[in-house]
Specification:
single chain, 390 residues, alpha/beta, Aspartate Aminotransferase, domain 2, Aspartate Aminotransferase, domain 1, 2 domains, 7-stranded mixed sheet, 5-stranded mixed sheet, 38% helix, globular, binds pyridoxal-5'-phosphate
């Protein structure tokens, strides 16, 4: 993992294909079908009785989707994985599998805004209470856990990039008999494998680094087969947010280069974060690698971080001046992106993430893509200069 040029640990990403597949193709086919027919009555009966496992309908099992699920399970060190049509379908189906009306869950502060809104709307409607805690404060987490049904983690967190000691939080959850779930989209399994740190279930917005090319919206959850089976059988069939074969195929293609891309994002983003930290117009840079050390288990950093300007910057001029950094939500693709904090803070859609956790109006979130460090740095420096009030 430390050698920047050896990706042997991830060799299975390259070799993963549909074994026994037609024509010995290195790229698996897209099994673009809604249903699968039975050869005769006996096969159909055996399948319905659960005596035979085979695809029936693509909302359940599809061979192309299964290849993606197997790849991700191997990467995360999981027994099983389940693909979804979006990260939010993954989050909602996973959490809803394990809560009942009257339950309470714990979530870290600064959790991804739509996860927060899901907790504050649908869970609230189901009479499920949510206690938000600062994941850096293990005493506060320990105090919130007794009696909770599950703890929902995200590390590093959205916007402020707080990195938590995931292993310590998972151990606390286990001690209190609380199921732990983590959103690992930011680090990807290349830089953090939460199941090896004791977390029960790991999930991703596969729309981010797993896909890596901003051409797919998808999600996936991985963990022990018994827990994945509960999601597979209790919520996925009825909420119906299954990953499509074509999107799975795009993810299989994207994941072949995941380790290479992650290391390129890491190097470029860290260099830009360091230069921003030294820039006279910048107050603070929120990037986990700028702290003294990364928490145990986080072995690298991705391309997403934020920073806060000193007063005296015109964010509108700054954003409009950028050439390579495009204004846009999401991240994890090849392209560099920017989201200004004043726009997020002004968002009206209730419940407000900014009101709940605070978003500094002088902050900016960057996704550092693969355009090249010097091109991106020149872009930022020119835009800061144009936007600085003289
Ligand atoms: C950290 C994080 N988790 C989950 C999601 C939701 O994923 P999706 O957009 O694929 O539903 C996002 C999307 O931006 C995200 O940033």
């Amino acid at each position: 993992m430390n050698d920047k040029h050896d990706f042997s640990e991830f060799a299975s990403l390259i070799t993963a294909h549909d074994e026994g597949n037609a024509f010995d193709a290195v790229v698996p086919p897209i099994v673009q079908t809604s249903l699968f027919t039975f050869s005769d009555y006996d096969e159909m009966v055996a399948t319905y009785r659960g005596e035979k496992q085979r695809p029936v309908y693509s909302r359940g099992l599809n061979p192309t989707v299964r290849i993606f699920e197997d790849m991700l399970a191997r990467l995360e060190g999981a027994e099983d994985a389940l693909g979804f049509g979006s990260g939010m379908a993954t989050i909602s189906s996973t959490v809803l599998t394990f809560v009942q009306p009257g339950d309470r869950i714990v979530a870290v502060r600064h959790v991804y805004p739509d996860a927060f809104r899901f907790f504050e709307t649908i869970l609230k409607r189901m009479r499920v209470e949510v206690t938000y805690v600062d994941g850096r404060d293990e005493d506060a987490v320990a105090a919130a856990l007794p009696g909770a049904k599950l703890i929902y983690l995200e590390s590093p967190t959205s916007w402020v990039m707080h990195a938590h000691d995931v292993g310590a939080l998972a151990a606390l959850a286990r001690h209190h008999g609380v199921l732990s779930i983590i959103d690992n989209s930011w680090a990807s399994p290349v830089f953090q494998r939460p199941l090896t740190l004791g977390v029960d279930l790991v999930l991703h917005s596969a729309s981010k680094y797993l896909g890596g090319h901003s051409d797919v919206v998808a999600g996936v959850v991985a963990g022990p087969k018994a827990l994945i089976d509960r999601i597979r059988n209790e919520t996925l069939p009825y909420l119906g947010g299954k990953l499509s074969p074509f999107d799975a195929w795009l993810l299989i293609r994207g994941m072949r280069t995941l380790p290479v891309r992650m290391k390129a994002h890491e190097a470029s983003a860290l260099e830009i974060a360091r230069r921003l930290q030294a820039h006279e117009q910048v107050e603070t840079v929120c990037h986990p690698a700028l702290a003294n050390s990364l928490p145990p288990g986080l072995v690298g950093t991705s391309g997403l971080f934020s920073f806060i300007f000193k007063p005296g910057i015109d964010l509108k001029i700054f954003c409009n001046q950028l050439r390579y950094f495009k204004m846009g939500v999401s991240w994890g693709g090849h392209e560099s992106l920017i989201v200004p904090g004043d726009v997020v803070a002004a968002q009206k859609a209730p419940p407000s993430f900014a009101e709940a956790f605070g978003v500094d109006p002088l902050s900016v979130r960057l996704h550092v893509g693969l355009e090249g460090t010097e091109a991106l740095w020149s872009d930022l420096v020119a835009a800061i200069s144009a936007a600085t009030e003289s």
